[in-house]
Specification:
The structure is a single chain. The protein has 210 residues and is α/β, with parallel strands linked by helices. Helix content is 56%, strand content 12%. It is built from nine helices and five strands, in the order βαβαβαβαβααααα. This is Response regulator transcription factor. Keywords: DNA-binding, Phosphoprotein, Transcription, Transcription regulation. InterPro entries: CheY-like_superfamily (IPR011006), Sig_transdc_resp-reg_C-effctor (IPR016032), Sig_transdc_resp-reg_receiver (IPR001789), Tscrpt_reg_LuxR_C (IPR000792), WH-like_DNA-bd_sf (IPR036388).
């Protein structure tokens, strides 16, 4: 089965081996105007997964083959940002609580209330939009830094390190006037009006260490 996924579109990805549950969830989401895509196994979702996916993942905790928990751990290892809601049976609550500690957004017990499920999914989609906005900001800040000349980047690093224009001039062996010109260009290219904004942009673009 092939899945055509538009990368910028928010979809609810349903992963459950129970065909009746998949169908009822698809119908429920369609009736509330939400688009979804269903997979019958964790392996099938993993094969289709892309870091560009937007939306959220509704994941059965217990499935033949790879379990929902194992899929969640694999996605975590890939630094996936898709918010995850687990569907659990009565005896699986301790497992679901453990998944929450590993970053899952929420879990819901079968049989679940339709409105509660839609409410959880809408919350997860809002969370995903927040992540998406942060990723766009990060990419924009990095693109702006990449657009600086090597000398402008040196000046940027020294500004962010808290060096004054005179100190930067001494560090780089250039005149204060030249530092002022570079500084003005850095501010313009980074699209900021203050030192505080400049520092924020540099922090946003900095690589995240796990």
């Amino acid at each position: 089965m092939t899945h055509n996924i538009h990368p910028s579109e928010q979809l609810v990805y349903i992963v459950d081996d129970d065909e009746a549950l998949r169908d009822s969830l698809i119908w429920l989401l369609e009736s509330t105007g939400l688009k979804s895509l269903a997979f019958e196994s964790a392996e099938a979702f993993l094969a289709a997964y892309s870091a560009k996916m937007n939306g959220c993942l509704v994941l059965d905790i217990r499935m033949p083959g790879m379990s929902g928990l194992e899929l969640h751990e694999k996605l975590n290892a890939m630094h996936a940002t898709l918010p995850v809601i687990f569907i659990t049976g009565h005896g699986d609550v301790p497992m679901a609580v453990s998944a929450l500690k590993k970053g899952a957004v929420d879990f819901i017990e079968k049989p679940f209330n339709d409105q509660e499920m839609v409410s959880l999914i809408r919350g997860a989609l809002a969370e995903d939009l927040k992540h998406h906005g942060a990723r766009l900001q990060e990419a924009d800040a990095q693109r702006r830094i990449d657009g600086l000349t090597p000398r402008e980047r040196e000046v940027l690093e020294l500004i962010v390190a808290g060096r004054l224009n005179k100190q930067i001039a001494d560090d780089l062996g250039i005149s204060i006037k030249t530092v002022e010109v570079h500084r003005a260009r850095v501010m313009e290219k980074m699209g900021v009006n203050s030192l505080a904004e400049l520092v924020q942009h540099v922090m946003i673009s900095a690589p995240k260490h796990e």
